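FIELD: query
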Amino acid sequence: MSKYSEKFKDPRWQKKRLKVLERDDWACQICLDDEATLHIHHRYYNKNTDPWDYPMDALVTLCEMCHEEETEMRSTIEQTLLKVLRERFFSSDVLDIAAGFNFMKPQHAPEVVSSVYGWALQNDEAQKILIEMYFEYIKKHKWKNG
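FIELD: result
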């Protein structure tokens, strides 16, 4: 069995890599750099899956610097998120959040969606508006089904 890194020489990976680069307009999807060395980043890995067998939405173009930072920082940042969720939310709340992310149909790239959500969570006025919209939706939904 060959090392995983050897699989990046396979023509199937090279073809997939080109499709990702073209889709992402040959630019890093974090910093938008289109002159640095570009890498194709796997958002996640599945055991016994070849690099070319991932769906397109699991692959993203990153410049060398952003790819290195993503690879190095991901685990630490995930642990920070987990700590915050444990400190502030019940498991049913976390399930609601996870279901929301799992079933959402993003209107923009995940990077844009996460920026907007981060901004909304840090902005008191945005939270107030979103919560009011939620309660209006609930009232309307119950009224239609009642």
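FIELD: remark
Strands lie at 38-42, 59-63.
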